[in-house]
Specification:
Blueprint lengths: L8 H24 L6 H8 L3 H7 L3 H23 L6 H16 L13 H7 L1 H24 L9 H18 L7 H16 L4
Amino acid sequence: MMMRATLSGHQQRSEATRHAILDAAVTLYHSHGVEQTTVSAVIAASGVGRTTFYRHFDDQDDVLASALRRDFERLLGEFEAQRFEHAALEAQIIEDMVWFVRQLSTRPALSLLFGDQKSRLFARIHDTLDEFRHAGMICARPTFERAVREGRLRQGVTLATYIDWVTFVVTSLEIVDAPFARNDFALRDTLRLFLVPSLIKDA
């Protein structure tokens, strides 16, 4: 893991200001809706000046994308910190998936992607979603490569299709709010029966 350089006092204040703007924006997104949240409202809620705001962000879409990116970066960092190698490949896939399913809806900005505003959001953050997919590939690569080493990967499954299918399942569980997904045991059983066989072969 790459070590982060120590920030100077000025950089720390700048980062704190940036986070204050993002926090204010996310709070407004949830209380008023993304479409109804204006730059002026974010500036007022964050307590910064207009010049300061534009020193950090280009426009409202930049704020939205940055808030989502911040949540996703934190999510990936925490995933890497808590992840460990399971003895069985099936367990690795299932436990990785369960962790993501349980985490996504708890992230303030990412939870917006699974609410009533999601269709309008996707149109505004298309480029950011491409970045998320790339980050997801980095996250899924160790398990994918393990499946390759063990000769367990199903024919035709590439890293791209692997991450597409896993992402589809995770987001579908969040959007549909299926009853079985609320129970960890039922969720694991469902993933074991339907997701795992679509990615890997029996040992």
